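RECORD TYPE: protein structure
NAME: Arylsulfatase A-like enzyme
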Amino acid sequence: MRNILLIHCHDLGRFVGAYGVETVSTPHLDTMAEESVLFEQAFSTAPHCSPARASLFTGNYPQSNGVLGLTHEPFDWDLNDPKTHLAHRLKTAGYQTELVGVHHESRVLADEVVAERLGFDRARTGGARDVVVERATEALRRMATENAPFYLQVGFTEPHRVPSERDRPGVMGFLADGVDPDAARGLTVPGHLVDDPGAREEIAELQGAVRHMDEGVGSILAALEALGLRDETLVVFTTDHGLALPRAKCTLYDAGLGVAMMIRNPAHPAWRSRRIAGIVSHVDVVPTLLDLTGLPVPDRLPGTSLRPAVESGEEARTHCFSQLSYHTYYDPKRSVRTPTHKLIVNFSNAPRAMDPTQSWVHRSLPADLNGPTIGTSPVRELYDLRTDPEELENLAEDPAQEDTLASLSAALLDWMRECEDPLLNTGTATKRHRDALQYLLGARHAPTPVQPELAIS
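PREDICTED:
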């Protein structure tokens, strides 16, 4: 069995130098990437915090693990079975287990209650970067003296938006304590945003927050090496979902679902300085770690170990699935992605993109904004990612795409059934909800079968 250090952060997407963002300063993550397997096309199962993390740490989709929304008050979503958490699986196998920093994958309770429920020997949640680094380093020193392997889960809040006295009225930016805007290398405005002074102001703050977080990661990795634990420890770095910018976080576009993900496995040369181009999902992380540590992988997990993809060149998966149900309001969406195409089905008439900025005054605007408002979402969206990586041209009504639509619709419906998705119930459905299901079933004028046992809650 091997030690595991899993480091995650908020709202990063793939905004890292190792993923080609040349203007952001992430030297520690870039160095880790050179020593690791970097997954170029990794995706979360949800574009917001709690559902994404619940999948990362249980290996199950939100519809199955129970976390369809945020886990703090007043939302209070929770895991159906806290014993499915990776920490509990590892503790049962003889690991020391500890949680430091962000906990948002199960109901937010007192630290000792969180620890007991999820399988941690100790939990110290919350804290800005320097507090997290101090606690993680102390945990490593303590765990290094024991005879059992350890699992240390470390979560950084940065680069999440936070209120600051330096914010202009109506704005919540990225200026946490110790964070200054960083435009020293220029600015990278994502292609799905309008490149204007407001966006550039916001991106400068974001780049400073990412640099701040990267320094924290570097401090923890340096402590691991100083303690002589580097060669005995699997290190995972990832984030929950995409950047907290318009048309990214809280959407099922790649900008909301694409995540940085790298795994450093010093014991095996095949895991050094590799880039995997195929699509992979956060639900693949738990089976991968269990496999790499020699522990059994439960058959019921929907993900797959990434070991064959890394060591034998096998394709990890043909489809990635994601969902949005509740964030600040109910806005049910489901998506399926292949290496070349994306289908999104919208089950409500909500605005086309939920606002993730927590600001009254918007500094960044979507590039495809037409008119004074963003408009409502269509029932279905289809994108050819080879020619339209920013997902700006909806091809769903193009007759030439019928075969692609049929294939993706079938895959999406099969996944929803496997997950026992509550959206399959039409007992309390709106017309839009029924239209979306009828589209997926390929029978627009036929009644959709009702599954009362999957009632929407």
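COMMENT: The first helix runs from residue 27 to 34.
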